[in-house]
Amino acid sequence: MSGPDGDASPGRRIGELAALVSAATAVVGLLLALFGVPFTGGSAAGRSVAGNAGAGSPAPSTPASALTSASASASEPASSSSLPEAASGGHGASTPAASPSAPRKAVPKGWHRVDEPGLTAAFAVPDGWVRRPAGDIQSTWRSPDDTFDMSVKRDTTYGSTAQKAAAGQLAWYRRSAESSMADLAVVTHRTRQNDRDALWLEIGYHWTGQSEARTRLEVFVAGEEGQVYQLLVDAAARGKTPARQRELFATARAHLLIDVERSR
């Protein structure tokens, strides 16, 4: 109904305003029902609340490789006795290790490949190194200055696992009358070699009748037919020799191939 001046009456205007408010409320309610209400600590669709903690941006995810590396580090070293701190780091545990069936990658400059069919193994040695008299189960090489010895061995004498082979080898080393090694201090690390569980050892010792300290780095890994492969680098622990010894050991490990007959 119109008022005297033709405009809507006050009651009608109030009713129309209430209708508009009601309609607006209904629209807002529909939008909230469809899209949700933002709130402190809340999360958008597909993102966890934890991802919004802190400064309001998603927390960076941890790469799977980092988790794997952290897990491996947490499990080593397991030591039977201690070496000096400078010699007890875990460098070798993270050395890339060749797979038995992996393609042969190029060796570094200054190194060359050695094939040992009798050991079903292939490995790399620095150029200029001299091969020592070989046995049926071992190939040994010496640096031109007589500082370093490197050896690859394939054997079943002490068992068919890396653990048994390492334990047996250490027991023999400790028989000084046979090994000529004395005052052994050993750190044993769990690691991976050629895509298999393995052990690598840091051994401090000296030759009987001599006082000069020496270090022997060794890795033991089982092959597919029950033989255990053993790679070692031995040197006197003097000057910069230990650092060079670790480099040699790491490179030799990275280029060791085992079960070669099966991988060809």
Radius of gyration: 35 Å
Q: Unreliable segments (pLDDT under 50, ≥5 consecutive)?
A: 1-6, 30-101
CATH topology of the largest domain: Protein Transport Mog1p, Chain A
What's the CATH class of the largest domain, please? Alpha Beta
Which strand order spans the largest sheet, edge to edge or round the barrel?
3-4-5-9-8-7-6
What is the global morphology?
Answer: globular
Q: How far from one another are the termini?
A: 102 Å
Question: By CATH's scheme, which homologous superfamily of the largest domain applies?
Answer: Mog1/PsbP, alpha/beta/alpha sandwich
Which percent band covers the strand fraction? 25-35%
| Overall average pLDDT | 73
**Helix fraction bin:** 25-40%
- What structural category characterises the helix and strand content? alpha+beta
Total DSSP helices: 6
Please give the domain count.
2
Order of helices and strands: HHEEEEEHHEEEEHEH
List the helices and strands and how they pair.
Blueprint (H helix, E strand, L loop, with lengths): L9 H26 L28 H11 L36 E6 L4 E6 L3 E2 L6 E5 L5 E8 L6 H12 L2 H4 L1 E13 L2 E12 L6 E9 L5 E9 L4 H14 L2 E2 L1 H4 L1
Antiparallel strand pairs: 1-2, 2-10, 3-4, 4-5, 5-9, 6-7, 7-8, 8-9
Structure keywords:
alpha+beta, disordered N terminus, Protein Transport Mog1p, Chain A, 264 residues, seven-stranded antiparallel beta sheet, three-stranded antiparallel beta sheet, globular
Structure characterization notes:
The strands form two sheets. The protein has a seven-stranded antiparallel β-sheet, sandwiched between helices. It has 264 residues and is of the alpha+beta class. The protein has two domains: 1-61, no CATH class; 76-263, Protein Transport Mog1p, Chain A, CATH 3.40.1000. The chain has helices at residues 10-35, 64-74, 162-173, 176-179, 241-254, 260-263; strands spanning 111-116, 121-126, 130-131, 138-142, 148-155, 181-193, 196-207, 214-222, 228-236, 257-258.
